[in-house]
DDB1- and CUL4-associated factor 5 (Drosophila hydei), 733 residues
Amino acid sequence: MNFVRQGTAASLNLDHALRFRELDHLRSNLEAGIFRQRLHAAENLYQRNLSAHYGCVNALEFSPGGEYLASGGDDKRVLLWNVDQALGNISEDSPDAMYGEHASNIFCLGFDTLNKYIFSGGNDDLVIQHDLYTGKNLNYFSHDGPVYGLSVDRTSTNLFSVATEHGEILVYDMRVGKTEPFIVANFRTPFNAVEFHPLNGNYLATANARRGAQLWDMRNNTQPFRQYNYISESPSCMSVRFNCNGSLLLTLHRRLPPILYNPSSSEPLCSFYHDEYFNSCTMKSCTFAGPQDELVVSGSDNFNMFMWRLDGINLEKKNQWIDTTPVILTGHRSIVNQVRYNRQRCLLASSGVEKIIKFWSPFAQQGWEGALTEPSETPHCTRPLHRNATDHVSQDFSMRNMEEDQVMLAFFDTLVQRELETWTSNSSSANAMGQQTTTGSDSSSHSSSGHTGSSTQSDEQSDGDTPNVSELSWQTHPNRIFYLIAKKRRALLQLAVKGTGGQHRNVEQLLARLLGEQRQVATQARISEWLEETHRLFGDDELPTTSAEAASRERLRRESISLATSRSPRKPPELRMIGSLQANFEQMERKRKLMRLRFAAIKRRRKVRRPRRGRQENDNALSYDTEWLDDDDDDDDDDNDDNEPEVNQENIVEDNNSNSSSDDTSNTSMEAQLSQAPSTSNSLQFGLEPNEANNNSPPAATSHNKKRNGILTATCYSETTTSSNSSSNQTNI
């Protein structure tokens, strides 16, 4: 009976364990689906800073379960962060420090598979084994040179390997203590990184300063099991990284973007490229990211992080060229060296020259900055660059200062610019490692000696310079580092093409396309400047966000203006007409005054020219008595001259005939004319009709002014006409 009960309890426990495993598998799949969806839609990530170090942060590593993050740097300390606390509580994010400190800079870190120990290696030639829970030092492993890389075997709880500057790859078995380690490789050139295969601990991937990326089999270590594509122009490999199941290997060479391999093939699957990416001055790492390792992430000397997607890569083909636009993560204020991914929490961590660590996540959280689907508003660091820093920088960590170190930033600003200015594609690769440095040469000072290339040519005279870069708008270059990268784009592109395994590609066509894209960016920058100016002038809150939208709005605005112009009747320009009429009236008035003066002068000449005797007094009297008509009604005479031209001519003839009459008859007729002049029909006609004509038809008056010569001739005979009419009437009486 007891046996049956025990069997029943055992079966229940087994069912519970299987059900828990199934639920855990479903939960992990659900989380992976959510992570994948968020990262697939990401154009940016939310970010947050962690501050606790007193100097540059050179090493990062997540624990196997993602619960902890270890960090180390120039301040010689190893800090342990609880990831969940750092994510959730902003006010209580202070990490735990390991008791044992290194004597110099820390370069690499690692966790064992059971989360019991932390391993740290650095510039003091030591690897220290720390107890994760107590922080105490358990073991010291000494070497002949600085330790640059460290990796723990995921298939064993006792093995870890190190890569040293002395050119050794060593494997330690903690079960035998500090005995002589197993030597996998021993070269004269430094090893920068080492990585155990995640599923088979017999294989190691290494990064060497002169021999590039290699794969080693510890069962037969006389020579590398596989030599990956050797790039003679850039042999120095900085980092190697397997994906979660070991089916892909990611490598990072100096001055090259990441290169992806199938570990079983020496030829690369693909090379990633972006014209702003550059790495040369410091030791950098690369990593896979995403629930299925569908992303590739690496830091750059231009202070940004680049995240490429593996979409569209055919794992059956070789030497593919991936230049699709990556997700560019901005926020660092100096060179980004280390990047690591937490698979369980979909979290990226990055660090570099600054004293901070950055967390990146596709999920918005309290106190975090940034966005997910919108790129950063400032795709570059906005602080001013330094150009003339000193060659040596001293650090004092006793002050425990976590504020930004401007002297250190200036040192690396100058280092990057000097490297770009002096490097050419023809530079010898023999001193590749001599030109490369970690974030610190020793615990107290940084030296820039040996960082620059052997060429003495300036950036304007280098044969690898990109043509016509200086003709591009400076708005496309946020600072001098971006500008110098653009100047070296041709040489960097040629180097990246060689990194694809010698695949034939037209570099000039790729360069022409890049320059075309650069000009498009310049155009967009000018449009953005125009939009900012428009916003400043008019305060428009709904400004277009892209150049295409701005061009579309401008086109719609012009079409609406042209449509409104075509529909609305054309109106005469009132202001111009008013000004024109006023000028015409003033001109008319001046001409009338001139006519009066000329008419008065003609009358005076007629008085002088009359030779007849006995009539001079009468003529003078007529001229004097009719002056009121000439002065007051000469405008009326001008306007009505066209109405009676024939009468004036007949009167002129009658006047000539009447000149032969007797003096008595002339005197009598003249007196009668003078007595009837104010009441004659001609005088009434001259006084009324012109006013009526001006009120009803102004254009007639204007056209009449054009006939000033005719009016002048008719008006000159008005005196004779009046005299002749009077004489004729008197004769009839």
